[in-house]
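FIELD: query
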Amino acid sequence: MTRIVFSKTGYAKYISHLDLTRCMARMFARANVPIWYTEGFNPHPYMVFSAALPIGVYGENELLDIKLNEKADYKELLDRMNKAAPEGISFKEIYDSDKDFKYVEKAVYEIKIPENISEKFKEFIASPEILVSKKTKRGETTVDLKAEISIKESESKDGYVIFEAIAPCGNETNISPTLLTGAFSEKTGDDTIFEISRISFLAKNSEIFR
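FIELD: result
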């Protein structure tokens, strides 16, 4: 399997996962990537993403698996892909991998909080429970984000306090930190738009998944 590491930043953070899939297919065609197509009535390029990125969240090291019809010089292929990529999408690395995405269990995020509301946010995440309603394929369910998301202050920089959040991001459970920031806004009435970035994925042994 050929694994691609890419970033999704700038205005590209507003591209939905479905539109990203279409964007990648067009970009691979422009870059002459020898990608393998599925067979059948409606062939399409074989692409598997590690996990859908919530709209409005930056992705620093997103993962995408493809199959190639022929061997390729990954360095040269990476250059062609970046030349064909739209604004906000940047390809960082290509390598062979046999690690299935089913082994991804969590994701690491950074949440930038303006200093003037950081104390209020700290009080919020210190609550004994943070109950929110989450939509699933089976309907809506109540989730305690306090139990699901591990969050701690990381550093202060340029007028912001940065928090690191580790949240479930696997096949069985997937919880976005936007639920946390949304719950904070709903409880406090603060309409600040938070900057959230997904930094990496973690395997079941808590090591960085590549």
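FIELD: remark
The domain at 103-203 is CATH 3.30.70 (Alpha-Beta Plaits).
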